[in-house]
Each structure stands twice: as C-alpha cells, then as structure tokens.
Specification:
This is LacI family transcriptional regulator. This protein is an alpha/beta fold and 350 residues long. 40% of the residues lie in helices and 15% in strands. The radius of gyration is 23 Å and the shape is elongated.
Length: 350
C-alpha cells in the first residue's frame, strides 16, 4: 500500500486524477462529498504525497510549524492529532514546538520556525503572552499564520476557537438550575482570550438568573502545580461559602476535585463541581466529573485546513475570520441536582 498513487485513488473512485489532486489540495472547485470520499480513500490505503516531488514544483518546504503551550495537555494533544491528519493527507510535514507557557520560549519557537523555512505557522498562545509583536513580524514577512484556541484580537489573522462563551454560560446555567447560588470560578491568566470569554459566559448566566456577580468568588491561576488548594481554602473561608465551583481548565478541574476531597467536602452534597476540559478520564474520576467539552481535534483540523489553504492559494483562500466551533456540556455526578442527592451512593459521608 505504500506505493498507492493518485491514479489508484482515481481508479478506485472512478473519477479523474485531476479531480483527486484538487480534492487532496482542498480545492474550492471540488464539492464536499467528493473531497470526503477522496480523503477516506487516501486514508484507507495510506496514501502519502511525496513532499520532495511536491517541493520541486516550487520553493515551498512542504512543512508547517505548530506551537502549543504543552503537548502533555490533553486538549493540545488532540488538536495536534487533528492538525497532523490534515497535513498528512495534503502532503505536509508537521514540526511541533512547545512554549511551556513561556513568552520568551514562544518567541524563540517562532524564530526557529522562520529559520527552518516553514510554509506556514499554527500557534496557540502561551499563558505569558500579552503582546504579539513577534507574530505581527511573521505576517509582515508574508508567512501564512493561523491561531487556534488561545488567540489575540490584535492580529488580523484567521482564528479557530471553541465557543467559550456559550460553554461557560451552559455550565453556569446548569449549576444554577441545580439549586446553586454561590458559584466560584477558578480560571487562568486574565489577559488570555479564553479566560475573558469563559468569564463573560459565567457572568451572563448569573445576570440571566438574577444572581449577583461577586469578584470575591473569582480566582486566577498561573498553571502552578500546588496553587489550587490555597484558592479553595480562601474561597471556602468566605461567608457565605461557595456551594459550587466552575473551573476553566483541565488542571484546575482536577486540582479542585482533589482539594475539595482532601478537605472532606462531599461532592456534590456540600459543593458541586464542573470543569471546562477535554479529559478522556473525566467519567472515571470519583465522583465522575461534569465538563464542558471542546472539539479539540476538529479545531486542529479546521486550523490546518485554513493554513494550508492560505499557503496554496493565498488569493482564493477563505477570507480572514474567526471560526467558532460549538462546545458540549456533559453532566455527570459532580454536579448532580440537589434533589437527586439521596439516591447517590458515592457521597463522602465523613
């Protein structure tokens, strides 16, 4: 199967080789159903375009750079899977960099990408990045750029994100309808786009249901390993104390769950918990964790498609815009309604 060619795909689907070639490039001239069939056939037979032959047609490197805060974050691992799937089918190598939540390292990653003569750049900003001059310089040099997940309004670039506002609104609304009235929000650095959008959704839900917004119930994290416990202690010392926690990241969700259990607070009897997370083990936690799930792999796929479109047909690519993909609220034991608690057996009786 390693020698499977465009001609083989064309013969398999009974279409022309030029149609297959345009479909693999994502051409706007080919209808979506034909593109789907071609991509599925290419995947099934492990078709791989020859990047050396492709690069000989022009000056391109047939490589794109991807910069993420941390590969160990399950969201970014899923997004990279989506990016690589699209890049592979369209004949591109993927070079992955990690900023490790460092602005300086992110700038160095961008410089290394430019030095490697990549054809385009995909980036999700680090938690320290509150200025984007290094990315404006990338654009000034004519390198195609697409941002995903953590983005910046200062850049005139295509941005692919989850609907963070709607997800946060749905999570907060669920807690309110479950009988909670003092909902704490643990979030990440305030200058990040996802922080602002999720906080706005939280505030909008409180306003919709006539609950006051109390800044004492908001805590900003810095991705430190042991910071959640002290935040929980501060919040539970308030009068009245929170009866629910809504967290804005995987790390905060798991940290909050651990901290609440260590303090012998029964979930959800004493306090409810819901996260904004892509954890693949959320249903295996004790209690199972309610979450807002982001379409991480789809975000990666769409971001890669948009970038490669920019690389291959800059004038005919989709116009600069923000692509917003829907989130999904998954309700599990950690935020069960107060009226259902008597029937649940997992409550900590200590």
């Amino acid at each position: 199967m390693s020698n499977f060619t465009i001609k083989d795909i064309a013969r398999e689907l009974n279409i022309s080789t030029s149609t297959v070639s345009r479909a693999l490039r994502g051409s706007y001239e080919i209808n979506p159903e034909t593109k789907r069939l071609v991509m599925e056939c290419a995947e099934r037979f492990n078709y791989r375009p020859n990047p050396i032959a492709l690069s000989l047609k022009g000056s391109s490197s047939r490589a794109i750079a991807v910069i993420v805060p941390q590969i160990a974050n399950f969201f970014f691992a899923q997004a990279i899977n989506g990016i690589e799937a699209i890049a592979y089918n369209r004949g591109y190598h993927v070079i992955i960099f990690q900023s490790h939540e460092s602005y300086e390292r992110e700038v160095a990653n961008v410089e290394q990408s430019m030095d490697r003569k990549v054809d385009g750049l995909l980036i999700s900003l680090s938690s320290e990045t509150d200025k984007v001059d290094h990315l404006k310089e990338v654009q000034q040099k004519g390198l195609p750029l697409v941002l995903f997940d953590r983005v910046s309004p200062e850049l005139q670039a295509t941005q692919v994100v989850a609907d963070n506002f709607a997800g946060a609104f749905a999570a907060t609304e669920h807690l309110i309808k479950s009988g909670r009235k003092r909902i704490a929000h643990l979030t990440i650095p305030p200058w990040l786009s996802i922080t602002k959008e999720r906080l706005a959704g939280y505030q909008a839900a409180l306003e919709r249901y006539g609950l006051p917004y109390d800044e004492q119930l908001i805590r900003y994290g810095t991705f430190g390993p042991n910071e959640v416990g002290p935040m929980v202690d501060e919040l539970m010392a308030l009068t009245p104390a929170p009866d629910a926690f809504f967290t804005a990241s995987d790390r905060l969700a798991v940290g909050c769950l651990t901290a609440l259990r260590q303090r012998h607070l029964a979930i959800p009897r004493d306090v409810s918990l819901i996260g904004f997370t892509n954890l693949n083990v959320a249903d295996l936690l004790y209690p199972s964790l309610s979450t807002v799930v982001q379409p991480a792999q789809e975000i990666g796929q769409v971001a890669a498609e948009r970038l490669i479109d920019l690389i291959e047909r800059k004038q005919k690519a989709a116009p600069i815009n923000t692509v917003k993909l829907p989130t999904e609220l998954v309700i599990r034991e950690s935020s069960s309604r107060m009226g259902e608690l008597n029937s649940l057996s997992y409550l900590d009786q200590s």
